[in-house]
Amino acid sequence: MTPLLVAIICLLTTFGGGLFGIWLRRRLPERLFSAGVDDSIKLGVGLVATMAALLLGLVMASAKTNFDAIDLAVRDAAVKVLTIDRALRDLGPEAGGARAAWRDAVEHLARERTDRHVPKDGAPQTYSETIRLIERAADAAGSVTPHTARQTQMQAKALDLMDELLVARWLTLFVAQSAVPQYVVMALLLWLAVTFVCFGLVSPRQGPVLVVFFLCALSTASALFITLELEFPFDDFVRVSWQPLQSAYRTIAP
To answer: Each residue of 148-158: pLDDT tens digit?
Structure first.
């Protein structure tokens, strides 16, 4: 399910649950709702609400960690791009072809918004255009003959960083997939619905109460939407900035 669909389901189930609780209160005999019964309902709903808050907090922490890891990987890739270009420049005029191939690879990477080309079986595509261009640049850099010890060091550094960038690319692809199981989301929706039903049971049927129910349901759905959006940092509304890579390409572009 998409984050927007989950948020809509959350809004409907929570607000609908509150309305159902109010309707059920009017259909049941009033003698069932003594002061002690209302207090018991409030205690029970407090427990469920606390568990729902804890679960939502865990989901949000997982999503934020996932988002921060992708953001850090993009920034780290931008630093590697500049470092590799400097190392290739130090190899001298003979590395002109390698630098041109590297700029082509970085240009393609900077234009990409997502690397999440994952088939249904979960296995990433073995060869993408950016991977092919990076490998071509690595081959060109490896074919350069260094003439000094520093050039040998710079060549090895460039090749190592290119390998690291390829590894980071695959890691980013896998990390960008949702880490929150569907059953966790379903459990959270169930607990939130139960909470609002219990709220309705102890609330009068008045206009301000309905408005508050709707606002609370909307706030809860919005929080869940933003949390799940963080799970997919290259899609929809909440996105990791691609600006570092684009700035790095503008720096090395001729």
So the answer is: 899 899 999 99
pTM value is 0.71
Check if the beta carbon of residue 240 is closer than 8 Å to that of residue 67. Answer: yes
For the chain, domain boundaries: 3-252
DSSP codes joined into one string, 22-57 = HHHHHHS-GGG--HHHHHHHHHHHHHHHHHHHHHHH
**SS3 category, 63:** helix
d(CA 71, CA 73): 5
Cα 234 to Cα 51, 201, 240, 242, 246: the distances in Å are 30, 42, 6, 9, 15
Whether residue 193 contacts residue 246, with contact meaning beta carbons closer than 8 Å, is answered with no
Per-residue pLDDT tens digits for 176-210: 666 677 888 888 999 999 999 988 888 887 888 88
